[in-house]
Amino acid sequence: MIVANDLKKKFIRQDKHKQKTEFYAVDGVSFQSVKGEVLGILGANGAGKTTLLRMLAGIMEQTSGSLEVDGLNYQQCAIEIKRNIGFMSGNTKLYNRFTPHELLQMCGKLYGIDEKLVQHREKSVLKLLNLEELQNTKIGNLSTGQTQRVGIARLLIHDPQYYILDESTTGLDIITSQIILDFIKEEKKNGKTILYSTHYMEEAENICDTVLMLNHGKVLETGTPDQIKAKTNSTNLREAFFCLIGGVSNEE
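User: That's the sequence. What structure does it adopt?
Assistant: Structure tokens below.
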């Protein structure tokens, strides 16, 4: 279980007059995510989604608040926690000079996985993501969608309990996007917990059990898609979001 309580992340920005001001990219976010759940983290660009997920993945440290994964906190148990997490963003960079086979072998070694087990997992993962014919092709020669599938393969090789996916379908073609969504649904069946950030409301409505809507770093609403739609008297999550922020003009 992931438990976040009043998480905040402060940054300092400088305007054109070189005046510095403090602001919170994440401002008092609290939630729980349980086993076998897809938690959608939704909001427009600049809502704080990426900052929140980077804190959850242990890439960035919160300014204040508490964060625990299975009762452990990052200050004391960072390595142990990260062994159970797979993180991927829409712009995750991979080593272009490596092949998918070489990348997965390297990742297996980094996680200290037995060589035979890595070989077994690699075979299964490449088949699952339809990458068998591309396993010896340099990543730099792959398309955007193929590279994103290699990124998913990288997540699967150490069999984490938690997946943290940040805008992982942004800019992808419809086929590759569906492969990622099917992957999420399958891993949910396997009891994995998926934290899924997106600004595609229709996509989230299709796969998320619970939704956390963010705006300017703060939680607008949380609940199941049906609960949020009912509370805002909306027919879909897109309508619900605009209802919660008071309309389009509020974001301009």
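Strands lie at 2-14, 20-33, 38-42, 64-69, 72-73, 85-89, 162-166, 193-198, 210-215, 218-223.
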